[in-house]
TrEMBL record:
Protein name: phosphoglycolate phosphatase
Pathway membership: Organic acid metabolism; glycolate biosynthesis; glycolate from 2-phosphoglycolate: step 1/1
Family: Belongs to the HAD-like hydrolase superfamily. CbbY/CbbZ/Gph/YieH family.
The entry's keywords: Hydrolase
Pfam family, one: Hydrolase
EC class of the enzyme, as a word: hydrolase
Catalytic activity: 2-phosphoglycolate + H2O = glycolate + phosphate
Gene Ontology molecular functions: hydrolase activity
EC number annotated for this UniProt entry: 3.1.3.18
Coiled coil: none
Keyword DNA repair on entry: no
Length: 255
């Protein structure tokens, strides 16, 4: 443990990235498949290539935005209305139809990680709050679907970030500051866990210690990054077992 970090027993919450951290997925395949499937539900209103182009550009704009005056959902709705002529009602209708009918092709791109469930169980056994801190560029039903495909959907998460409930994206420090406010904790009472050296380690800008999961490392920083802790999933399992307070002994048993 580095000298700057608070004692691990002071940690009260763990923020987990989702893709590449709690489940296996190649986003380079997942995002095009998502756009292809979703565009089919708007094909009678707009060219599919134009739809994918606008959604891709808007997603990158969300990742770079420091506006913070409205939710990511509102920013996306403005973009699809302005550039594609799709109003909010039509957007919600097409999105709902896609979630009813079009998720099968996405599910096969997700791989569940047996250790991920054990890691989360250990967090909850130590009375830690758990936040699913996935980059909030997708609607919540798509986040929920990925949690279900990863067999992680039945945990009592304190917060699951999505484009509806966030006004910043990773790596903006405002994303992490909003999470801190939501769970009512100070930076030193949390740890951010993720596999992306740019997006997840940005939590350090908000004062949150980080654990870099290097099983499927995404390193846009080309090695020029700093993290407080690092290791694979086995290391992460051992690490979360040192966070927070030891659970009280079970009374009423023994001599």
């Amino acid at each position: 443990m580095s000298m700057e970090n608070p004692p691990l027993e002071q940690v009260r919450a763990v923020l987990f990235d989702l893709d590449g951290t709690l489940l296996g997925v190649e986003m380079s395949k997942f995002i095009p498949a998502y756009l292809e499937g979703l565009s089919g539900h708007f094909a009678d209103q707009v060219d599919r290539r134009a739809f994918a182009r606008v959604l891709t550009a808007t997603t990158f704009a969300l990742l770079r935005s420091d506006d913070g005056s409205r939710s990511n959902q509102e920013m996306l709705l403005e973009a699809v209305g302005l550039h594609l002529g799709i109003g909010r009602a039509k957007w919600e209708q097409g999105l709902a139809a896609f979630f009813r009918e079009g998720l099968e092709d996405l599910e096969k791109l997700i791989t569940s990680l047996p250790l991920a469930r054990e890691i989360l169980e250990r967090c909850f056994s130590r009375n830690l709050q758990v936040v699913v801190a996935t980059n909030p560029v997708f609607p919540k039903p798509l986040v929920d679907a990925r949690l279900q495909w990863g067999n992680l959907h039945d945990f009592p998460f304190a917060l699951v970030t999505s484009y509806e409930n966030c006004r910043y994206c990773k790596p903006h420090p405002g994303y992490f500051q909003d999470i801190l406010q939501s769970v009512g904790l100070q930076p030193g009472q949390c740890v951010m866990v993720g596999n992306d050296t740019e997006h997840d380690l940005a939590a350090r800008q908000a004062g949150i210690p980080t654990f870099l999961v290097d099983t499927w490392l995404v390193d846009r920083q080309q090695g020029s990054f700093t993290t407080d802790y690092r290791g694979g999933h086995e290391d992460l399992l051992e690490f979360v077992g040192r966070l927070g307070q030891d659970p009280p002994p079970i009374s009423g048993f023994g001599p």
